[in-house]
Protein: Histidine phosphatase family protein
Amino acid sequence: MTTPAGYRRLILTRHAKSSWDDPTQDDFDRPLNQRGRFAATELGDFLASRGLEPEEVLCSPAARTKETWARVKGAVLESLPAEHFIPELYQANAAQLLATLRQAHMPTVMMLAHNPGIADFAASLPARVPLSSDFRRYVTCATLVVDFQIDSWAELKPGSGSVIDFFTPSRRG
Structure:
């Protein structure tokens, strides 16, 4: 599904479920657990089934976001997008996420980051938010697909998006 001219599409993803097997491990370095690996692959399959391929990826450099992206990428991509691992996305608030997105270049962007900032950012984007209780909590691997009628990400204004889809993983894995 390509983004129409005069539109920008955002695929906004919270990282999948991380592992707490090692309580001494630094938060930044925590990998995905088994459920998270399954969910990230499931997200990739979901995006592929709908033809939702990002052209540019803005990703926190934390281990769990990078691993989420790697698993999604393995399922969804026919061509490799521009990938940017941006330190400011680690534990970013909604304002930082918006500022980063406004600097994106391609029409279809996937952003992978963390709660609580990503939940606040997701809630601020569409004119009407999904009714799902999982949207309000922005559970791990939750993904909002939202379109904006703008020519450049620099023009993005909160509350102006149209929800195309909302994904949450199954509870398996």
